[in-house]
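Preliminary data (for renewal application), 1-deoxynojirimycin complex.
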Amino acid sequence: MSLSKDKNWWRQAVVYQIYPRSFKDSNGDGLGDIKGITSKIDYLSSLSLDAVWLSPFYPSALVDGGYDVDDYRDVDPKLGSLADFDEMLSKLHAAGIRIFVDIVPNHSSNLHLWFKEAIAAEPGSAARNRYIFRDGKGASGELPPTDWPSHFAPSAWTHESKMGGKHNQWYCHLFAPEQPDWNWDNREIEEDFLKTLKFWADRGVDGFRIDVAHAMKKDLSEPLQSQPRYASHKELELANGTNVLFDRNEVHEVYKEWRKLFEQYDPPRVAVAEANVSAEGAVKYASTAELGQCFNFELLDANFIANEFKLIIDRALVNAKKAGSSTTWCLNNHDQMRPATKFGLLPTVDRVNWRNSNGTSSPLDEKLGTQSAVAGSMLIMALPGCTYIYQGEELGLHEVMDIPESEIQDPQYLRNHKIDKGRDGCRVPLPWTKTGSSFGFGDGGSHLPQPKHFGDYSIEVESADPSSPLSIFRKALALRKTLIAPEDMTWHETGDAQVLHFSRPNGWNCITNFGRNHYNFDGAGEVIHSSGPLGKAGDLPPATTVWLRSSL
Ligand code: NOJ
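Predicted structure:
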């Protein structure tokens, strides 16, 4: 199968996120790897995907799951080699699947050659100017230079002595101390990232997912300003590109330059921003003069409630039009609680507190959660725009709640006063088989413990069951390819506040019942697929989506 040269291939694509360490282990060391991915291309093909996005696979000490990058232009030897990557890429392309790689431009790792040079160098040197080093406050510089917070530690500043530095400076990191922030006011850094993008684009990579895309540029003018907590979306909007740490106007100049590079390829390379800004704030990042797409994360926080979904959908479509882009839909990624679990909790439950209680503080309706998640997925697949699926979502996997404290890897927990249990529960390796060593993940165990029930959710078991989430996803994704319509939709009145019905210009209708009552759609069209069993004569049970073909 050859890849089309259509420069708009991404606008309504299905992109499947692979978390490489947890996808498939080919050499029995307990960590998923590149050859593991290559060995499962048949599986990826069975999902009718347009593209896969690989979370970082670069050399890394894995302090933050690979988002601490030692070398942007290589493959972690624990995961394979560049030759393995090239083989994977050519086999994916041969199967008609494109590939996105993750670019982490806000910070490197402390093991990056340039950070090692910076720590060994003198204050004020060119080597230090690649990162953000400053003298501390206090009589002898014993206090951090500012009050900036870090995501994974109380302060965004660590004294260089902690990293072996011999001087009395502090360096900045918005995430873990092992993730020092680059100095984006230094042209050398801008050029190095252009080199990295070109390196992967020349190898044939089709797209890029940009990590913390609203960071990078900071207000580093002296004296550094106070920013004791991160600004909310609203505050970022009001700051209008002048917040000290995030969403600054200058970052858009970076992306305009990246766009020029993307356009040098045929078809042009594409990118999607991970920018923690409001739906309105995302417009600039998503503009086709910049990255071209920006994740719409609003559904990640939504409850399975019709009106919540509807408001988010309407807002996203308006903003995508403003950007000249298509919108993106996702219910999950490697930073989020699995949707089957989220939707199995009452909307009033605080999800973080619930996770911290190991899932004991309120009851979980597992079955309802799984049904709702599959129904939600079929809804987003039918919307205009691009659908992102996170590995395991197609199996209806639940969050793993009982990872023992001693096995937690996430810095969100380890570096943050052990307050929030973090994100490991959605990163547990995939179950491929019902039984056997790590349920077919590999022969050498699994780097995060898999719960006993994982075998029942395995690809082997679900492939054999026509009513499983996997079978429903497979059919939906295959049908979606044949149903793709112009990027438009119309809402239809249902007379039930818990039922959403929309259609696409070619007569593809989607009805989702978010409520607890049955809904009757008799006469609305011919059923082509549903996320669960339907009743007789147009009966749509609770937590179910149906696709219809009609002349509406
Ligand atoms: C966002 C990534 O998705 C997350 O996993 C990571 O911890 C942070 N960025 C820092 O790179």
